[in-house]
Amino acid sequence: MKLSKEALSGWVELSGMPKFTTTLIPFLLGAVLAWIDAGGCEFNAPVFIISLLVVLLLTEFCFVLNACAVYADLKQKGVDFHVEGASTLHSTVVSGRFNALVKGTPSVKQAVTGAYACMLAALPLGVLLQFYFKTGILTLPLGILGAFIAYSYSRGLRLSYHGLGEMALTLGVGWLTVFSGYYVLVHQVSWLPTIVALPWTIDVFKLKLMRNIPDYDCDLLINRRNLTIRLGKDITTRLYLPLTICSWLAFVPLLFLNVPYIGFLLLVIPVFFTARGLKKFDLENEEELSATIRNAFTGMILIPVALIGIFILKIVF
Asked: How confident is the model over 272-286, as pLDDT tens digits?
């Protein structure tokens, strides 16, 4: 029983549960947009719950597989991990904290097997959605695209090793989650989820670049040539301002979507946190860098939260 609890605890640690908000909340935004676009008709709760479970499983598949891939590459390079040590190579953002793998609870093989099991479990649910609930011909292709991005990020095409990982995650987390949440509930293609998701999508790309900075040495060691490695730390940090401004400007189309202007007050919250990262900070100061990334993550995840609030207000008013 003790071993079982340790394995469960290790799996939760490896999964990086707080990061699940990056897929579940935007999916919820897409569902809210679908409900509004359908004129507030009866909400299909079974479809929503099953599709949300699919998103959860594919997110687990992506995060665990990526952590295992990076850990295996570092071990191959001869990195000596210390479970309670001060090494920064096992406690970085991208790695997902390797303590569980170091202790073998779960082992790399068990973790990878569990990741693939999550992906396989999502497949029959996708079939159920498309053919039983008749959610539309694009349902399975959208799910397969999500699984392909999750797999190819660190395995197969290894997009994150060739400077394409940031774009892949921007597509998968930034756009696909919102669009899928919309599509499975209204069964039709629309520009609405893409337009609404634009500020979120831009911020996802920006944060991914920033979160690569603490992992710079780790990624360099395993030859993970992501965009941050290719651009360098200095240029990457300089992109924070223009990308933040682009994200703010992407809120402008909301003015033409007949939403109540009072709802724009909700945008003050994510703007506040993203603006806190605009001040100059020392790249060598881990505390300042960590605070900037924390604020950037908070601001990013609050964007779909604020957008959900805005469109709920549209229903109310």
From this structure: 999 987 877 777 777
